[in-house]
Write a structure and sequence with these properties.
The chain is an alpha+beta fold. Helix content is 17%, strand content 33%.
């Protein structure tokens, strides 16, 4: 089985004198098998330093492992932003990037202006009642109003690479047309009332029973069995006087 070499730099020292070393500068392992890389650092670091492993392939590409996972820069996030909403209702905008590692944090913008997480602390946003969850990518309007109309987009960012933003979407809030709804209900009730009155009037005038009777006759005619007509030969009688044949009866059906 082929073996691959992993080269680890024996020691790193930054401008402040902190050092990090490894006891395994060169490892040879079989393909598809595990390898343990060890790193030690001087006591000058803080008690909980951030430890990253940087890998560089032979072709020049590189990636970083942190906390046992490869780090991935944000991609263009998926933003769900409604274009039309009704005032005085709850509206939720969402933003997500499942590929970013570590998990991305999110920032929302309105008309290219970043929205602060606490709008009450800023005069320009004190009339807005939204809520932001930067870790979940949620922008919530408990009671949306026309003052919230604007172009919204979200930006995803982490430590692995540059931030990415989705395309801005214009959200517009409209008042509920109560008058139009009431007028529509009234018109519908009037039409139903006219229909009921027409049926009642037709019943009083006897139109409905006559129509029903005619329909029953028509149905009976269409589905009735045809009658069989039998023709019988008339009875032949002879005149006793002259012996000639004379017809004394007609055909009987």
């Amino acid at each position: 089985m082929a073996q691959n070499s992993i080269v680890v730099r024996g020691g790193v020292q930054d401008s402040q004198g902190f050092t990090a070393t490894t006891s395994t500068p060169v490892l040879k392992v079989a393909e598809n098998e595990g390898a343990d890389l060890k790193c030690t650092y001087s006591g000058d670091f803080n008690p909980n330093p951030r430890i990253e492993w940087n890998f560089k392939k032979s072709r020049g590409s590189s990636f970083v492992f942190f906390d046992g996972k490869p780090t991935v820069a944000p991609s263009v996030p998926l933003c769900l932003i409604p274009t039309s909403v009704t005032t005085s209702h709850q509206v939720v905008l969402s933003c997500s990037d499942k590929d970013a590692s570590p998990a991305a944090t999110y920032k929302w913008y309105k008309n290219n202006i970043p929205l602060p997480e606490d709008p009450s602390k800023f005069a320009a946003f004190k009339n807005m009642t939204y809520k932001i969850d930067s870790s979940a990518g949620i922008l919530e309007f408990p009671v949306v109003s026309q003052a919230d109309n604007g172009d919204y987009y979200c930006e995803a960012s982490n430590e692995a690479g540059p931030s990415q933003s989705c395309t801005a979407v214009r959200m517009m809030a409209y008042d509920l047309n109560v008058g139009g709804i009431v007028a529509g209900v009234i018109v519908a009730l009037l039409l139903v009332g006219l229909l009921l009155f027409g049926l009642w009037f037709a019943y009083r005038k006897g139109y409905i029973p006559k129509m029903a009777e005619r329909m029953n006759m028509l149905i009976g005619f269409l589905y009735s069995k045809p009658k069989t007509v039998v023709y019988t030969q008339p009875t032949a009688n002879y005149d006793d006087e002259d012996g000639e044949f004379k017809q004394k009866s007609s055909f009987v059906v």
